[in-house]
UniProtKB/TrEMBL annotation:
Record protein name field: N-acetyltransferase domain-containing protein
Alphabetized PROSITE patterns for the sequence: GNAT
Entry keyword annotation includes DNA damage: no
Organism in which the protein naturally occurs: Mucor saturninus
Domain N-acetyltransferase as annotated: residue spans: 11-177
């Protein structure tokens, strides 16, 4: 079977029709069985709701920017650019997910590279990523993309969702090319 090419683009208002699929992609990537990015044994609950996704789509660019990866006309990945609260020149990579059925095909790298490019266009000079400290395989993958550990360790945002107590995020940063 021939697979449709993967395209990554900024969401548009009419992409609200993809909200349910995009929500499933995010929740499956973070919380379901399968896929090498799952956190199901570390964190419980949904990563995002369909209501959240609808708001991310309809409010994209105010202040966050959302991108989807499509295989044909089906959403298979997401990434969100979120301006940092610490520095006006930094933006965070968030809501990064690839459907477990589509992982290990280069889609994640394509999503991150497109997000980094868009960050640069938006005037940011540094990309920030927060990764659970007990995920060495993810840390290694982000380092291959040029992210470096800063030494900063911050508490998990929703501690009530943790299945493993006292887990923190490590902060990674990458200077953006102009």
């Amino acid at each position: 079977m021939v697979q449709a090419p993967i395209t990554v683009r900024l969401v548009e208002l009419n992409d609200v029709k993809h909200a349910a699929t995009a929500t499933t992609v995010v929740n499956n990537a973070y919380r379901a069985e399968g896929g090498w990015t799952t956190e199901k044994d570390i964190v419980g609950g949904q990563r995002c709701s369909e209501k959240d996704m609808t708001e991310f789509i309809t409010e994209s660019g105010k202040p966050n920017t959302l991108l989807f990866a499509f295989e044909g006309d089906v959403v298979v990945g997401t990434v969100q650019i979120q301006p940092s609260h610490e520095s006006p020149k930094e933006a965070e990579v968030g809501l990064f997910s690839v459907s477990p059925l589509h992982q290990s095909r280069g889609i994640g790298g394509k999503l991150v590279r497109q997000a980094l490019s868009e960050m640069s266009v938006l005037g940011f000079d540094t990309a920030v990523m927060h990764v659970l400290e007990n995920r060495p395989e993810l840390l290694s993958w982000y380092k291959k993309l040029g992210f470096l550990e800063t030494g900063e360790r911050i508490p998990f945002v929703w501690p009530e969702m943790l299945k493993v107590k006292d887990i923190h995020f490590l902060t990674l940063k990458k200077p953006l090319e102009k």
